[in-house]
Structures are given as C-alpha cells and as structure tokens.
Amino acid sequence: MSSSEADIDSSPVSGQPDAAAGVEKAQAQVLAGEVRRHRKERGLSLESLSALSGVSRSMISKIERAEAVPSTTVLSRLAEALGVTFSRLMAAPTEREMLVIPADRQPILRDGESGFLRRCISPVLPGRGIDWVLNTVPPGGSSGRFVGHKPGVSEYIYVLHGRLKAHIGSRTVTLEEGDSLYFEADAEHSFENVGEGECQYFLVIDASRIR
Fold first, then answer.
1. Terminal C-alpha separation, the chain
2. Helix axis angle, 72-82 to 57-64, nearest 10°
3. How far apart (Å, rounded) are the C-alpha atoms in residues 163 and 96?
4. Res 45: pLDDT
C-alpha cells in the first residue's frame, strides 16, 4: 500500500460538533455512494481498487460505508484509479445545463490532520472534464501529495491571497498573490502555504482532452 493510514481522517463523522457533523455526515454519504457506484460500474472488487489506487481495502470499505472521510491525497488516488475527476466523487451528477449551486450545497472536503480545505464550486455534469475548486491552506499547511493524472490532464492555479509553493514533479515554484500557474499534471504534485497567513487559491483541473 503506497499511501499511509495517516492519509485518512478515519474519525467517525458523528464525532464532530452537531452542525458540522450534519454537513460532514451528508458529504460522507454522497462520497460513499459515488465511490461504490463508480467501482461497481467498472467491475472492480475492493481488492482490485485497492491494488490500483494504493489505498487499503479496509479503508475503501470504510469510505464506502461512510465511516471514514478520506484526505485529499487518498481521494485523489481513488479518483485516478476510477478514471474520474475529483469532484465527481464528491457530488452526484446532474444533466441540467444551467445550475446554481448555493454555497451551503457546494461539496467541501476538510483534511482533519492538515486543515487543508477543498471546496468544489463547479457542477458535476456527465461528459465534462473540468473541475473548478477553491482551496484553502492554513499557515504552515500543505495540500498533501497528489498522484500524477493521466497524460493530457492540465491544471490551472490562481492565488487569491497569500503565498503558495507548488511542487510539480522535480520542479518547485513560489506564487505570490495574483500569480497564476499552468502545468501538465501527469507528475506527482503538492502545494504548501509559505506565507504568514492563510493561503487561498482557485484550481481548475482540465481533463477534457482525455474524455
């Protein structure tokens, strides 16, 4: 198994304060259903998905039962192994071409260990290959490591505020507020906050060339 047990926030979702627990529990239920649905659509057993993703069978089972909320690193491994975008695992798809997503219905993934917060702000539409997310990294925090995507996937970043250090394969670049970055995302990548305050940045993942 290439990802460690520490990569998963396996605390029961019911252990959070009441308001937050309700939101997190609902998100865990959606995530559980989507991981299970995509796995079964591809004819994969838990063991097969574990081998493809590097996430243990027991952890995948916990995620599918909504008993654990995966970190962004683990979810990225599952998404890559299932051949779907990150956001597609966090929200059920819709066929509508015009869609308003209220702030309180935008899927949010919080990494309990690092404090990294990922908010999906694009709709999940069948046949699309675009994810648009808003990421927030606390001071001294990191996104964790993301596995490389399939060749043809690109990512775009715009720093809203703060300072962000991007590690793309063997290359590293520091972005200031207002800077943007484009890169081919088939190499392992990670992002860390190197400023004094919170860092917030938009991320667009474009997988349309491989759809």
1. 28
2. 90
3. 37
4. 93
Contacts of 9 (CB under 8 A, 6+ apart): 68, 69, 70, 71, 111, 112, 113
What residue ranges of the chain have pLDDT lower than 50? 1-17, 96
What is the CA 127 to chain-centroid distance, rounded?
A: 19
- Residue 85 contacts residue 129 (beta carbons within 8 Å): yes
Q: 47 φ, ψ to 5°?
A: -65, -40
Q: What is the 3-state secondary structure (H, E, C) of the chain?
A: CCCCHHHEECCCHHHCCHHHHHHHHHHHHHHHHHHHHHHHHCCCCHHHHHHHHCCCHHHHHHHHCCCCEECHHHHHHHHHHHCCCCHHHCCCCCCCCCCCCCHHHCCEEECCCCCCEEEECCCCCCCCCEEEEEEEECCCCECCCECCCCCCCEEEEEEEECCEEEEECCEEEEECCCCEEEEECCCCEEEEECCCCCEEEEEEEECHHHC
pTM for the model stands at 0.61
pLDDT at 112: 79
